[in-house]
Design brief:
This is Peptide/nickel transport system substrate-binding protein. The protein is of the alpha+beta class. The protein is built from 18 helices and 26 strands. The chain has 3 domains: about 50 residues; about 240 residues, Dipeptide-binding Protein, domain 3; about 300 residues, 3-Layer(aba) Sandwich (D-Maltodextrin-Binding Protein, domain 2).
Length: about 600
């Protein structure tokens, strides 16, 4: 067989072998010989592969991306504690701190991270998880699935709650939350208790509206003659003074001030104690004409801040534009990096006249009504922004439009306040829009009662508190950092206002790369986080540990916090991880340690 095999290719002298009928036989013989050789040496091959691949298995090394201490003190402290725990169990960890906008750009736009620690804007309705986790959005920007998480079962659960209503929807939400708790696409850590400082001697009515929403700054009752002239707000994040684009993910989170500039068809009115209800706003009202069709009537004679009328065409344009910011000009749509889940509920809009329209939704009625909360954009200002973006010296991803990159200054909306002036990282000044519909005597809605709203920028809680104590500010719009809460001295003029939050701190995984796409890995990491201990250590008790990222009214009994995470209990006690137990958990999940106690993964 050896000679035949040689004759099939080269002679011993290197000349070509004789071709003809014997060539076919030789080829078959060679093939048979090769198969036999493979079979006889398969054990050696496995050993060879084991030796070769061993060079590709190294200690797991990862980076935790988070905001700098100036941007979010709690996030950096959480990142440090989590990093210390991971290092204890044999993982090499570094921490990368970025400014607010750089952090959001890295995580939400560029998807350039291994793990990150930060605060998610969350939502009052659990449908926010649809855009947060659905695989349809795994390659999009913004809070649309920044994790790159894909799971068909989770997709089914997300979709099921979206098309249901009433008790059926509540059951679907429970099933969705339980599936998410097992998969751990991110680790929910805690929900902070929000504290802001207010001056009661200048205004009354602080408890009527949540100060993370537009209604918190409306219907205030001035207590002195000059307090009606200007509401003095101190904000600890400079971004509102630099960018007022409602679509920009790097500069927007809850969008409180955007909601004062832009009206939506409906508004989630949230009281300081957390009670909430969806109520008509720019829409005078709506009715369901069948299971999937909403008929709305806009309030009459409404105008944008530049005097142009607000019409049903502007509403229809807004939903088309948020779905595709190139308005069909490209082969592929370029959706907005914000409001994606809400506008996805809308299948069609039929404009009947200037103030009447019908919206057909492909969801249940509860989710369909949530679609009414997006900001209405003036078509005459935004249609020209459907062109390709150009930023000097910056490479722009295909499909990015001017609508996404513009700072939108001056902003033109139709909200209760309009833009006046600004200075980057110093202040932004709004003035009351006196033609706003809430100023009409026939409309019973919260209205702007001050002539001006000045948002001053101050980066620290301690100096923001001092501004109120010195009567240089009336309210802190940003929640105060937890470490200063115990030191606040309440007086007749100044007091802290406590409010619940629907935002939550979490650890996010970039599931686009190994091992973070492995659910078993994520489960073990989740069990290395002592949430109760972190709430005490980092938040000084001013937060609530959570096992699921929804408000209390939506949390099922089997996911309610009862001293420990019911699905992913901590592998240790009092913040100290049990290293042997953690290593066993990793090994049972399919990972290995070397003799030096380092967790090894394929790089």
């Amino acid at each position: 067989m050896g000679d035949e095999r040689i004759s099939a290719g080269r002679t011993p002298d290197g000349d070509s072998a004789v071709t003809g009928s014997t060539d076919g036989i030789s080829r078959r013989a060679a093939l048979a010989s090769a198969v036999g050789l493979t079979a006889s040496t398969s054990g050696c091959v496995r050993q060879l592969r084991s030796i070769v691949n061993r060079d590709d298995i190294q200690q797991l090394s990862l980076t935790i991306t988070t905001r700098s201490a100036d941007g979010d003190r709690e996030s950096i402290r959480l990142a440090r504690e989590i990093a210390a725990t991971l290092e204890t169990v044999g993982i090499d960890v570094s921490i990368e701190m970025r400014s607010n906008e750089e952090f959001l750009r890295a995580v939400l736009i560029n998807h350039d991270f291994d793990l990150y620690v930060g605060q998610h804007p969350g939502g009052i309705d659990p449908d926010f998880l649809y855009e947060t986790l659905h695989s349809l959005y795994a390659d999009e920007s913004g809070w649309q699935n920044p994790f790159g998480f894909t799971n068909l079962l989770i997709d089914d659960r997300l979709e099921a709650q979206r098309v249901a209503d009433g008790d059926e929807r509540r059951e679907a939400v429970v099933a969705m939350l339980e599936a998410i708790a097992i998969e751990q696409p991110f680790v929910p850590i805690c929900t902070p208790t929000e504290y802001r400082l207010v001056r009661d001697d200048r205004y009354d009515g602080w408890s009527r509206g949540h100060l993370a929403t537009r209604t918190g700054y409306l219907d205030l009752e001035p207590q002195t003659d000059n307090s009606a002239d200007r509401l003095r707000v101190v904000h600890m994040d400079p971004r509102p003074s630099e960018n007022l684009n409602p679509l920009n993910a790097e500069y927007r989170e809850q969008g409180t001030f955007i909601d004062l500039l832009y009206d939506s068809l409906a508004v989630e009115v949230v009281a300081a104690d957390g009670d909430h209800a969806l109520e008509p706003w720019l829409a005078e009202g709506w009715e369901w004409t069948d299971e999937s069709t909403l008929r709305l009537a806009l309030r009459s004679d409404c105008a944008f801040h530049d005097g142009e009328p607000v019409t049903a065409d502007d509403v229809a344009f807004t939903y088309r534009f948020l779905e595709d910011t190139v308005l069909g000009a490209d082969a592929f749509p370029a959706p907005t990096p914000r409001y994606r889940g809400r506008v996805a509920a809308v299948d069609d809009i039929d404009v009947r006249d200037e103030t009447t329209l019908e919206i057909t939704v492909g969801t249940g009625q509860a989710v369909g009504e949530q679609a009414l909360t997006v900001p209405i954009l003036p078509e005459h200002r935004w249609s020209s922004r459907a062109t390709a973006a150009t930023v000097p010296g910056v490479r722009i991803a295909q499909g990015t439009t001017e609508a996404v990159v513009t700072d939108n200054i001056p902003p033109i909306g139709s909200g209760p306040f309009q833009y006046d002036s600004h200075s980057d990282r110093d202040y932004v000044l709004f003035e009351r829009f006196d033609d706003h519909f809430t100023r009409r005597g026939s409309v019973d809605l919260p209205e702007p009662t001050v002539e001006e709203l000045r948002i001053g920028i101050d980066p620290r809680s301690t100096s923001a508190i001092q501004l109120l104590e010195d009567d240089s500010a009336d309210v802190t719009s940003s929640p105060l950092e937890s470490y200063v809460i115990e030191d606040i001295e309440e007086t007749d003029a100044v007091r802290p206002l406590e409010s619940p939050s629907w935002t939550f701190y979490h650890l996010g995984f970039n599931a686009r790369s190994a091992p973070f796409g492995n659910p078993r890995f994520r489960q073990v990491i989740a069990q290395l986080i002592d949430k109760a201990w972190l709430v005490d250590e980092v938040f000084h008790g001013h937060a609530t540990p959570i096992a699921t990222p929804v408000t209390d009214e939506w949390t099922p009994d089997d996911l309610a916090w009862d001293g420990a995470d019911p699905k992913m209990p901590f592998l240790g006690s009092n913040g100290e991880v049990d290293v042997d137990t953690a290593r066993t958990a990793f090994e049972e999940a399919g990972f290995r340690y070397d003799a030096d106690g380092k967790l090894r993964v394929r790089q």
